[in-house]
Amino acid sequence: MVVEFGPFQGVVPRVDPYLLQVTQGEVATNCYFSSGSLQALRSAELADKPLSGGTGDIEAVYRHDTLSASYWVSFRAPADIVPSPVSRDTYRRLYFSSVLYASPRLVAETLLHEGATNPATTYALGVPAPATAEITVSSAVGGDSSGGVTTQESRYYAVTWVTQYGEESAPSGLVGVRNLDNVITGPVVVYPGGTVTVTVPDKPLLAAVEMVIAKANIYRTNTGSSGSALQYVGTIELGVNTVNTTFVDTVPSSSLAEVIQTSTWTQPQPGLTGLVVMACGALAGFVGRQICFSEPYYPHAWPVAYERPLEDDIVGLGVFGRSLLVLTTRNPFVFTGDHPGNMERQRIDDGLACVSKRSIVDIGVGILYATPEGIMFVGSSGARLVSSALFTRREWSSINPETIHAYNYGGRYVGFYDTGILNDQGELLRGGFILDLDGNWSWLTTYATAGWYDSKSGQLYLVVNDVVGAAQMFLFDVGASQACYWESRPLATNRAMNFGAARIRAEGWPVTLTLYATDTAGTEQVMFSRSVMDEKPFRLPAGYRSDKYRMGLATAGKVHKCWLAESLAELVRS
C-alpha cells in the first residue's frame, strides 16, 4: 500500500477529518499552497517605524509617502484613511474618518513629522459658507447717472471662504442693501463707474470649526441674455488679525470672471465614515443608510444632490474598477458610473451581509469581506462565497467573525480575529489566517492589531503588541525562514498494517516527518519523528501494526510530494 501526499491543500474545518481528501490538511499553520506545493511563510521582520503613543491597541495604520519623506499615521481606534484624489496635490493631504472624530478630517504633509506621533494636528473636512447676516454691502458711490435708469445695474453680492489649502465653501446668501434693522431690502443700484464696498466678518470667529480661512472670494450677480449668474469679482487676502476686512468693487460687468462653481458644495454630513477614493476622483462615505459622494477632485465638497438612500444600514464600502461596493446588514449594492451625479445602482441578490467593516479588503480584482457564513468575494465577475467549501456557519462562528480585520497580501486575504474567550492564563484567544482565492486556508501563529498593504512593493506591514503590550511594526513574510506545519487527515486502513518506508520530494532541507499511529487501546502515539535531509527513500520503524495513522510535515522550505509505503521495494516501484 502506497499513500501519496500532494498536491497539498489547506484545512477544511467543515468536513469530518475521516472524510477529507488525502491532499487536504487537518492542520495547516503558517503555510502557503503555491501551485500545489506546501510552502512555509517566512518570519515577520521588525520594521523600525514610529507608532503613536497611548494605551490600547492600535487599530489603523497608514504610510503616507511624499516626494521628500514617508510618515506613519496611526489610530487607537478603527479609521478609514485615504490619500488625496488630486494627483498633484501640492499639500500632499490625507483624509480620514474615525470614531475618534465627529466628522471626517484632513492632515497635510506640513503637519506630519518623522519619528513623531501622527497625526497630532488635523483640520475638519469641509468649509462652512459665510453667514449672510455678517456680510454688509454699501450703497454705490459715484458713477455716471446721466444715462438714466437704462444704464444702471442692480446687483447682489455673495462671499465664499477659502482655506489655506484652496478649499472653497458654498456662497453666503445674496446680500444687497440693508435697512436700519439690518434687513436686506433689495439690490445695490450702481451706475457706470460707481463703486461698492463689501465687508466680510471677523475671520477668527471661525476658530470653532477647526480650519484656517485664508481668503474671502467676492461674487456678484450679473444678468445677460441667458439669465443671471454669480460671477467672480475679486479676493480679499485675510491677515492673521484681520477684522471686518473690506473689498472695494470697481470691476465693470464686462470684466467679470468665471461663474461660481461652489453653489452646491456643502460640508460632509456629521458622522460621515467609511471613506474610500473612487476612480472618478470622488470620495465616498456613508451615514446610517445614506451613501454620500464628494465633488470629483474636491474632497471637501459634498453636494446633497449626490446623496443616495438605501433600505438597510450600511456597514462599509469598497471600490473595484469604476464601481463602489456598498456592504450592508443585508444584501450588498454596487454603484457604477463616471460621476457621482449619474451612478447606477444594482442590488446583488447573491451577496451576503457584512459583519465587520474592518474585514473589507480590496484585492485588485474585487472585494473580500466577512459574512455570517464565511468570506465573500464581489467583483466584476459576480459574487461568490470563497470559503463555502471550508466552513459551515457553526465552524465559522467559532472565530467570532464580527471581530475580523483583514489585509491584502498579493491577492491573498490575511485576517485576524478575537474569540473573546480567555485561556487558563487569562489571555484572550486571538489568532490569524491566510486565504487564497483557490480556497486554501492556513492558520497563522501571529496576531496583529492593525495592518497596511503597500501595493507598490507588495509588502504587508503589521502592528503586533510585544510581551508588555507595546506596539511594534513588522513586515510580514520577509524575514528568515520559519517552519510551517501540515498534518494529514486520519489514514484509516481496512486492515492493521505497518508503514515501513517513506520518501519526501522538497526544496529546502531539513523536512521533519512525524508519523502517528493509534494502538489497540485507542491511544495515539508518535511512532517516528525525524529531520529528513534529502530525497532518498528511508525506512520507518517496524514491530507494530495499526489501522489508523496520521502524518505531519514541518518545513521552512517547500515540499512538493511525500509518500508512505509498507516497504522500500513498494515505494521504489511506485
Describe this protein's structure:
This protein has 574 residues and is mainly β. Helices cover 2% and strands 43% of the residues. The protein contains two helices and 48 strands. A hairpin with a 5-residue loop joins β22 (273-277) and β23. The longest helix is centred in the last third of the chain and has 6 residues, at 568-573.
**Biggest β-sheet, characterized?**
6 strands, antiparallel
Q: Provide the gyration radius in Å.
A: 33 Å
Strand-pairing-aware structural class:
mainly beta
Count every beta strand, where a strand is a DSSP E run of 2 or more residues: 48
Head-to-tail CA distance between termini:
10 Å
% residues in beta strands: 35-45%
* Unreliable stretches covering 5 or more consecutive residues: none
What's the overall geometry? Answer: elongated
| Helical content class | under 10%
Count helical runs.
2
Layout of SSEs?
Elements: E1 2-5, E2 25-29, E3 31-32, E4 38-40, E5 45-47, E6 60-65, E7 70-75, E8 79-83, E9 94-98, E10 105-107, E11 123-124, E12 136-137, E13 153-155, E14 157-163, E15 177-178, E16 184-186, E17 188-190, E18 196-199, E19 213-224, E20 227-237, E21 246-249, E22 273-277, E23 283-287, E24 290-293, E25 308-309, E26 314-320, E27 323-328, E28 333-336, E29 344-347, E30 361-362, E31 366-370, E32 375-379, E33 382-385, H1 393-397, E34 405-409, E35 412-422, E36 428-435, E37 441-444, E38 450-454, E39 459-465, E40 471-475, E41 484-488, E42 491-497, E43 501-507, E44 511-518, E45 524-532, E46 538-539, E47 546-555, E48 558-565, H2 568-573
Antiparallel strand pairs: 1-48, 2-41, 3-4, 4-48, 5-40, 6-7, 8-9, 9-10, 10-11, 12-18, 13-17, 14-19, 15-16, 18-21, 19-20, 22-23, 23-24, 24-25, 26-27, 27-28, 28-29, 30-31, 31-32, 32-33, 34-35, 35-36, 36-37, 38-39, 39-40, 41-47, 42-47, 43-46, 43-48, 44-45, 44-47
